[in-house]
Amino acid sequence: MTGMLASVATLAEARLVEESGVDIIDLKNPAEGALGALPLAEVVRIVGQLKDRPVSATVGDLPMQPEIVLPAAEAMAATGVDYVKIGFFPGGDRAGVIRGLSALARRGVRLVAVLFGDDAPELGCIEELAAAGFAGAMLDTRDKKKGSLRQACPDDFLRAFVAETRAHGLLCGLAGSLRAADVAPLLALQPDYLGFRGALCGGNRTDALDPEAVLNISRRVRGRASPGTVA
Ligand SMILES: O=C[C@H](O)COP(=O)(O)O
Known about the structure:
TIM Barrel, 8-stranded parallel beta barrel, 231 residues
């Protein structure tokens, strides 16, 4: 069954989505880009207050340089989050980053690679990520002004991404400016989770979460939305 990931920026938002039944609470600073990081101390504080829901956190929109990504991933893992999300941005030394992160994975850190649908990622990297010990891979969008993941990628590509991640035993997520109308078509692809921020804030991801919007999306992901619910 597909779960729901909600990206939150504060403890109050984390508590709101926890009470709304969200499956994965994702800590990020939406004001700092697609994968903006919260301060480590804030992540520690929030993690300490949450009871029984897996927590992920992003390390920031970092250049693909091992000397930058590896210490950031190590520091985020030390906060106690369940998953550390690493954005695979264009350029840099991607192979070196994956090689370095494999050491973290071997120590039991659960890493999730975030690939960007608007960068037309090669699915061949999924095998490399699995071999390096990553726990999961997800698609997101890097440019939040260019529309949703489903506008960046045809559903056939999304279907192939889900199949490839599953074939390599990775947790699979789809996200990227998803809206209520995207839920049903994406549930049909059966990813492990769908991720949201913008749709939970009434459209602007740097606004605060709207409890009604969180419930609306949560019900749709769980298949309890009444027909004709406002998208
Ligand atoms: O991981 C989740 C995504 O970053 C959600 O953010 P978005 O819906 O604003 O694209």
